[in-house]
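Section 5: illustrative case.
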């Protein structure tokens, strides 16, 4: 597993959407081959309109004050999963007008398809849209706990919370028969590659890799393990659709120089 810590990243792109909202986008290069796509979005504005993408996706809300995705409340820490071609949103910040979230994909995608106006770009009926709130609880004093947040589906979709006490060691969940996993450290620290990494550190595990063994730092660690289903024919058709298509479609705001950033 390769891990990338936000503290190590020096490049972020500030973008302005046509409706006056703005976002800072920080890309996490967790895969040397360039197949995965992971970035942190720090969004400010009234809302990000409902839309869909052609790929499987988790989004993890890590900062904000009472925002929502669609009708679901998403206080930090919350996350949601959507299948390809499955509309979600709008993403609405709380009273402060700001919300921050990781967007995590097993395949890179350039397309944002706003609804309404993009139904003709959906190659299938909308699939799963799962929202989970992760409660804040005190750190463990001993050992480790692996908690199931999304029960494993037949195609491999699953999610877990791995909590480790100070200096505890524990393996992640097995991922055979899945589409890969992201590990997101959101509290505490991990000992990795001869150093101690802190939030927000992100790792990617390929479907054919063994589950990694994590080692917590002095304050313990709280980690989300977000597991994708295997790729579907819907995703394959959608990625072909993107090849010669505009990055945005439907009734929503565009971004200048959009080829350099995603949302």
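Designed sequence:
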């Amino acid at each position: 597993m390769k891990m990338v810590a936000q503290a190590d990243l020096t490049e972020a792109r500030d973008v302005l959407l046509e409706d006056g909202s703005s976002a800072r986008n920080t890309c996490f290069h967790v895969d040397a081959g360039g197949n995965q796509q992971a970035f942190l979005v720090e969004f400010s504005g009234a809302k990000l309109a409902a839309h869909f993408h052609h790929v499987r996706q988790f989004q993890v809300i890590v900062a904000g004050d009472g925002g929502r995705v669609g009708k679901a409340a998403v206080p930090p820490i919350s996350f949601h999963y959507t299948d390809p071609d499955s509309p979600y949103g709008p993403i609405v910040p709380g009273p402060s007008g700001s919300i921050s979230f990781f967007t995590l994909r097993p395949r890179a995608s350039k397309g944002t398809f706003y609804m309404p106006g993009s139904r003709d770009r959906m190659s299938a009926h909308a699939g799963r849209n799962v929202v989970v709130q992760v409660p804040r609880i005190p750190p463990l004093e001993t050992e480790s706990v692996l908690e199931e947040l999304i029960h494993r589906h037949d195609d491999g979709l699953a999610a877990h919370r791995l909590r480790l006490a100070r200096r505890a060691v524990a393996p992640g969940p097995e991922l055979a028969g899945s589409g890969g996993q992201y590990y997101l450290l959101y509290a505490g620290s991990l000992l990795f590659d001869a150093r101690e990494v802190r939030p927000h550190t992100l790792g990617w595990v390929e479907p054919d890799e063994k589950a990694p063994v994590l080692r917590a730092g002095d304050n313990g660690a709280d980690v989300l393990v977000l597991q994708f289903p295997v790729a579907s024919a819907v995703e394959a058709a959608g990625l072909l659709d993107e090849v010669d298509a505009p990055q945005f479609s439907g009734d929503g705001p565009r971004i200048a120089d959009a080829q350099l950033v995603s949302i």
